Amino acid sequence: MEETLATQTMQDCQADLNVLTVQTKIYNNTDQVLTKTKGSEKNKYNLDFPEKIDANSEVNLCLRNEEKGKKIDISVYYENDYGTVELIIHKTTNPFESSVSAITKNDLIDDVVLLKNTKFELNTKVIIAESLVTVTMRNVYHFLNELKGHIDGDQIEMGGGNLFDMINYAKACQIFNTRLQLRPFAIIYCTSTEEVQRVYKGAISNNLAIRVRSGGHDHEGECSGTDTILIDLSRMNTVEVDRESGVATIGPGNRFERLTTLLAEQQVMIPHGTCATVGIAGFTFGGGWGPWTRSKGMCCERLVGATIVLGDGSIKELSDDADLQARELLWALKGGGGFSYGIVTALKLQTFELPRELIRFEIEWNKYETDSDAKRLKIVHKNTVPTIQFLKEWEDVINANRGLESNANYLNSNEKLIGTNLKISAIPAAENFDANTVIHNCVMYGYWDGNENDLSKFIEKNFKNPQTYDFRITDIAGKKSYKAYGSNMMSNWDRESFHTVKQLLKGGVQVKSSKSRPISPDLENPAPHKITSCLVDAQGLGPKGHEALLRSLTSPLILDGNREMGLFTYITLGAISGVFYQSKTEELESAFPYKDKQYTIQYQTWWNESLERKEEGQDNFVYDRINRALDWMQVCRDFNIPNTSGAFISFKDSSIPTETYFGSSYERLKEIKKKYSKDNLNHFRTRKTII
Ligand SMILES: Cc1cc2nc3c(=O)[nH]c(=O)nc-3n(C[C@H](O)[C@H](O)[C@H](O)COP(=O)(O)OP(=O)(O)OC[C@H]3O[C@@H](n4cnc5c(N)ncnc54)[C@H](O)[C@@H]3O)c2cc1C
User: Fold this and answer.
1) How far apart are CA 210 and CA 396, in angstroms?
2) What is the structure's pLDDT at 412?
3) For a substitution probing ligand 1, which of 217, 230, 284, 576 has the most ligand atoms within 8 Å of its CB?
4) Residue 582: its pLDDT value, please?
5) Which of 178, 199, 274, 275 to mutate to test the pocket of ligand 1 (most atoms within 8 A of CB)?
């Protein structure tokens, strides 16, 4: 009987059109046989249902009633280890009273598709499958089993049954942006290319999504993901410098504080970023802007080789002397974004010699000070300067090289200013906004190649009215220095310190010249934040652009008192313009698309853990402030600032279209991904990957 039914065709069933007919195709999409259980023996249609439906197979049912005006009514149960399913069929000559349904329990799920419902005919498909949760968890189980004997237990972090395991797992999940809380199935700490290859292949062959994390500083959390296998590379942190070629082979798990110290000990350096805890891998693939950009270019320009695990699990060495595939992939890694092209397990970066003397300095205008009752921080109106003045001065300084030869006199070309950014804090909306008079707190940060004397002359020459600003040297490094580079030269160029604000409110004074460890304790800690960006075109902002930029920084969405609570809203302008890009643009082979831009504009909103906790506790007062600040970010993202375009992928904001990040490199990057990453199923994908 079963066999007859299983082979009965739909055509047989449809042969007699005046007979009440129910055709149902039942798919058993589980890997276990479904067995009919007792209960419906008395029903004459029971025999039409097979006793068993094989795993991963289908059967056709054809129920008929030739007596006019009669109906077909039956309910049959099947079961396997995953659960039970009740199939209920009800057919009369009234289509509105006819139905086929399934009720699944435990780990079975169903999908019923109605194909036809007329006076005499009901035609449906019933699909029985395991719930996705069960399937996925079984895949995780198989994946972990396959790692046994290859990956040690202490390389795997998963949420466990006891409190300590749960705490360790929660810590391991933490990424730098605590606005995003993501929970992978498992975090695997790989220690070699072969382990990465094994874990990657194991995950995809078990149908599990993967993510890759090096330093964990992705602003949109794309280095992790809930219900994924997270390949963590932080333990791959070796650093080897070839003295002859100056090429450093660097593990992707290196972060700047340790990495720059190790390089400086060998008297060499790379164009690192501003923050001690950022990872070299994501930083380089995103371009890599920092305090060396004016003179040495973005970090990606120095990437001369890499080891990469591709989409099919193969390992490929990339260099400019290798085959076309290797050359194209290397080009893509130079600014084409993280994760899209494969998993990089080693980077080769061309280092440069450290200067003899290197000075890190700051200039601050319109300082915040405590008001008379020491409850508020205000820009005290004594020696204040309109923002437009120092903004233009800073622009003139970074653009002095445009049109000059790279070896021009440094006092004219500002060649010794090897990198700089300008931080301008946003303020609550001013009545009668005037771009020529509006005042914001502002700090210029810089690295200077040379001695204090020359630096002082440079500042006097380029920034008017010394009584209006504080100039401070915050640290000194270079070949002559005995101090650890990483912990002294890394800085707060990107962050504001709540610790410093609290000190000020307690009546403390702002640090003038520490020449000691510069990082306030909270600046290295993960914190919730949101970033967005654009870049200033080669011709510069011009009067309309300046006005729009300053207007965007003067907003009713910034509430008075935010700073005192540790809610910071500001922009950082990162200089690209300088000797490097002005003299080398033609010969540079990299995907970084913004070589001719003057500088990046990075809008930032940061708050802190105690505010976050209050927010979670539904303290609506705080919630309102953070919400408004995030609204400000959205307004700024869409602000029409003349002579700006593009966006910088390392300052990632998911709501900016992908093409905007990669500009003229976009089409070539997509082609490289399709042709050379061997990632046909696009395993290397997140919201802002190239495809
Ligand atoms: C506090 C702070 C300061 C910052 N300062 C600067 C700055 O001065 N200049 C600047 O340019 N940027 C800066 N950034 C941005 C930073 O460079 C990027 O977020 C960068 O992607 C971080 O790299 P990571 O390795 O730490 O990140 P991760 O979050 O680990 O990775 C970032 C992306 O790259 C992918 N990825 C990571 N490792 C690999 C790998 N080995 N192979 C393939 N894909 C990989 C990840 O999957 C993810 O998509 C800063 C960010 C923060 C949070």
Assistant:
1) 46
2) 53
3) 217
4) 86
5) 275
Q: What is the pLDDT of residue 513?
A: 42
This complex has an ipTM of 1.00
Among 234, 259, 285, name the best residue to mutate to test ligand 1's pocket (greatest count of ligand atoms within 8 A of Cβ).
285
Residue 512: per-residue pLDDT: 45
Q: Quick one: pLDDT at residue 328?
A: 98
Q: How far is the CA of 201 from the centre of ligand 1 (A)?
A: 24
Q: Separation of 250 CA from ligand 1 center, angstroms?
A: 15
Q: Measured between alpha carbons, how far is 170 from 264 in angstroms, rounded to an integer?
A: 35
**What is d(CA 266, CA 263) in angstroms, rounded to the nearest whole number?**
5
Residue 377 alpha carbon to ligand 1 centre in Å = 33
CA distance 124 to 61: 10
C-beta of residue 127 within 8 angstroms of C-beta of residue 109? no
For residue 287, give the ligand 1 atom closest to its CA: 11
- Positions in the chain whose pLDDT score sits under 50: 1-11, 404-411, 511-518
pLDDT tens for 654-684 read 999 999 999 999 999 999 999 999 999 999 9
pLDDT tens profile 313-333: 999 999 999 999 999 999 999
pLDDT of residue 381: 64
Task: Tell me what pLDDT residue 566 has.
Answer: 87
Delineate the domains of the chain, giving CATH numbers in brackets: 2-130 (2.60.270.50), 133-232 (3.30.43.10), 239-353+667-676 (3.30.465.10), 358-656 (3.40.462.20)
- Cα–Cα–Cα angle for 530, 277, 358, rounded to 5 degrees: 110
Backbone angles phi, psi at 189, to 5 degrees: -90, 100
Atom of ligand 1 nearest to the CA of 274: 8
Ligand 1 binding site (Cβ under 6 Å of any ligand atom): 176, 211-219, 222-223, 233, 252, 273-275, 278-279, 281-283, 285-290, 338-339, 343-344, 494-495, 650, 686
Q: Which two tokens stand for residue 379?
A: 């820009």
Please give the distance, rounded to the nearest whole angstrom, from the Cα atom of residue 152 to the centre of ligand 1.
Answer: 27
pLDDT of residue 617: 62
User: Which residue's alpha carbon is nearest to atom 12 within ligand 1?
Assistant: 650
Residues in CB range of 382: below 8 A, 6 or more apart: none
